[in-house]
Write a structure and sequence with these properties.
about 270 residues, 4Fe4S_Fe-S-bd, alpha/beta, 2 domains, Alpha-Beta Plaits, binds flavin mononucleotide, Rossmann fold, Flavoprotein-like_sf
């Protein structure tokens, strides 16, 4: 199959999904690459279109065993037309549950043909110095695997005459998908005296929950707990409030999900 453009669509508040996508793109090695980083709200205004001559790589982090709920509306505007697609989820070494099958189902409903899927591990968004979880993942081995997976996909695509000849991957997961927990206001960020009001947190928040004029306040109704503001703060002035559910969950993850999980492919 002749692919003209590799389209990379990804959401990555703390950068681990973006790192996996970059490594896969290296292995895929197409000359023309379109980068569609939908992390920030303004990038989610336009629908993405792709034809049968494009290869789409769509990648999202796992939130509660599902795709992040805020991405569903954008994903449901994808305009695909027999487009070959590779679906990737990145999870924090607990479990990816139904996220990959959910992503694959939406892409299929929108007119794509899923050629393969993969689940990679990234440092858990809730990981902290006190309760580390999958720290520094994806590491060099993970990125080598991602590049290698990209290379395998490229070889398979090059060998296909038509998308109709592509074998369909067996993507794991249950339908109906794992139920989402009801979402109430989320008030878990504390800001200490180290904050110099630089505003980087507000610039990097994927849901605009931090008011540029009131940087120490995070809107609990908008916050999605992605922890981007904690990880990007150059002064390390932002953290989870002691005793909050996020801190409790980080402790649980640290104690129960310490054993290293490896990337898995469905191809
Ligand atoms: C709200 C929320 C829910 C999460 N749920 C899961 C989960 O169910 N399983 C898991 O292993 N990791 C979970 N994670 C961790 C992320 O999937 C993981 O850290 C991922 O690498 C973050 O991607 P990013 O760096 O591209 O933002 C969750 C993170 C957040 C913020």
């Amino acid at each position: 199959m002749n692919i003209r453009t590799l389209k990379l669509a990804y959401f990555s508040p703390t950068g681990t999904t973006a790192a996996v996508v970059e490594a896969m793109a290296k292995g895929l090695d197409y000359d023309v690459v379109e980068d569609v980083d939908i992390t920030m709200p303004e990038e989610r205004q336009e629908p993405l279109q792709a034809s049968a001559e494009d290869l789409l790589l769509v990648a999202v982090p796992v939130y509660g065993g599902r795709i992040p709920f805020l991405l569903e509306p954008w994903l449901r505007t994808l305009e695909l037309d027999g487009t070959p697609v590779v679906c990737v989820v990145v999870y924090g070494n607990r479990a990816f549950e139904d996220a990959l099958i959910e992503l694959s189902d939406i892409v299929t409903e929108r007119g794509g043909t899923v050629l393969g899927g993969a689940a990679f591990v990234g440092e858990h968004s809730f990981s902290s110095e006190e309760y580390p979880v999958a720290v520094d993942r994806p590491d060099a081995d993970d990125l080598r695997s991602a590049e290698d997976f990209g290379r395998q996909v490229r070889e398979a695509v090059d060998a296909l005459d038509s998308i109709d000849d592509a074998p369909r991957p067996d993507i794991p997961g249950d339908r109906p998908y794992k139920e989402r927990k009801p979402r109430g206001p989320v008030d878990f960020i504390q800001v200490d005296d180290g904050c110099v009001l630089c505003g980087i947190c507000a610039e990097q928040c994927p849901v605009g929950a931090i008011d540029e004029k009131d940087l120490k306040h995070t809107d609990p109704d908008k916050c999605i707990m992605c922890c981007a503001c904690i990880k990007v703060c150059p002064e390390h002035a932002r953290s989870a409030k002691p005793g909050c559910p996020v801190e409790g969950f980080a402790k649980w993850l640290n104690e129960n999900c310490a054993e290293r999980k490896e990337p898995t492919y469905f191809f």
